[in-house]
Amino acid sequence: MKIVVDFDRCESNAVCMGIAPDIFEVRDDNFLYILDESPPEARRAEIQEAVDMCPKAAISISGD
Q: What is the DSSP letter of 41?
């Protein structure tokens, strides 16, 4: 699985960071950073929650 972020849609609101702070990070520059683009499959449910909760639908999972 690979995390994909559409940075044109992302508002860096940190909802994803609240769900998976070791995967997503919004830094002081107000930009979202993906800390692990290819997390283990065991994290799929958590990453899917971040996808589902993103208010701008900017996150997706590829490589299903």
A: G
pLDDT tens for 18-56 read 999 999 999 999 999 999 999 999 999 999 999 999 999
Decide if domain 2-62 falls under CATH 3.30.70.20. yes
Give every CB contact of residue 41 below 8 A, 6+ residues apart in sequence: 1
Is residue 34 classed exposed, middle or buried when 0-12, 13-18 and 19+ CB atoms within 10 A define those classes?
middle
> For residues 43 and 40, what is the distance between their CA atoms, to the nearest angstrom?
6
The domain segmentation of the chain, as residue ranges, is 2-62
